[in-house]
């Protein structure tokens, strides 16, 4: 079955079981199925959305997002969730690249999205209350599920920035996402009674495919909120008796410092899951002590692989915290390969490759990039340098492409460098990641000026062009940057 067919199945199996909790809104699987069908009808009849069309969602985690996500896929169209923090120019590039037929947003995230739509003369739909909206437009038509062949049709288009600074669309079919969801449901012991808390944005592959898709396959309850704060995490776990949470390491480090954690009842939680970077040594112990639990799982992967990859289990943290585990997750394989294409010996650094049924179909309309990331036998090249130790545990040591991971979110230096260089006062700029106690890394800009400018003016210039999480937090003004004989900036010297 295609992914939204599981919503219909859950409505038959668990009609009165809670499917989604979004603040005061509590929807059963039967109600979710009704709203998904009504919104699919509205999209088809009033916006002429059909199989293969791309529909972009500029929405935070919400009941509206979930209904729209499954309704788009029910029509055989391709859902493309987009980061709500992007600027109008960043959104416009993605909308145009996706050749979107429609953009769906709501008031609090609509200004940049609507500006981009206006520039492109692209249809948009602003929805603030999905339940009222579908009731207004419903005609009572029922959409039948697509046939089995649709498993191999495109389902989701996620955008991730490339090293050139331009985002690339990562395309998945239904079959791949079903394997990704089943992988996580298997490894994290999802049950219909599980209550999955999602505070990390569904515009990222892990919350979307591991939690939303994986939990829907099983019939678990989704607890959602539009953003992450330590207060929200603690309050929702206690109030809603959540059992599973996925977050970046920084989410745990910030919450561990919160004064309310010692008096919050977290006993319902069975799986504290983190990804986007490891929690090494002291940080892992500090978090476990603060949360009063040793049930922490580290997951490693990348968007292009589903994400699928490897996992570090709770009982392995005592000796191997900081590694990403000793085995690949279900339906997945992992290997470390040297430049000759051979499997690396223990403790020999090489590139990590991931293989399995959950990998992407292609980079959207980018044949060269697709060829570059796939190996001859269909595995994904991660671009990460890693090694396998004598005990069989994998360690990610560095990134081949200078990727910065800040708070579990990818920041690509070239895109930031282009924004800096667009200011007439900047002669040259190089961007690197530097260590940060809470975020893992933060963005540092090394800038050579051609004329004097105040740091605050340069910060404001960049903030107009990039989402906040990409903007440098640290600036260093230099007389010159180190270069090699070919003129390439030597970033290892800057670090």
Secondary structure layout:
Blueprint: H1 5-13, E1 18-22, E2 25-28, H2 29-46, E3 54-58, H3 63-74, E4 78-81, H4 88-98, E5 102-105, H5 110-120, E6 124-126, H6 130-137, E7 154-161, E8 167-173, H7 174-187, E9 195-198, H8 205-218, E10 221-224, H9 230-240, E11 244-247, H10 249-256, E12 271-275, H11 281-291, E13 296-301, E14 309-312, H12 317-320, E15 327-328, E16 332-337, E17 350-356, E18 362-363, H13 367-373, E19 380-388, E20 394-399, E21 404-406, E22 409-411, H14 413-421, E23 426-436, E24 440-449, H15 455-463, E25 474-477, H16 491-494
Parallel strand pairs: 1-10, 3-4, 3-5, 5-6, 9-10, 9-11, 11-12, 12-13, 24-25
Antiparallel strand pairs: 1-2, 7-8, 8-18, 13-14, 14-15, 16-17, 17-19, 19-20, 21-22, 23-24
Helix pairs in contact: 1-2, 2-3, 2-6, 4-5, 7-8, 9-10
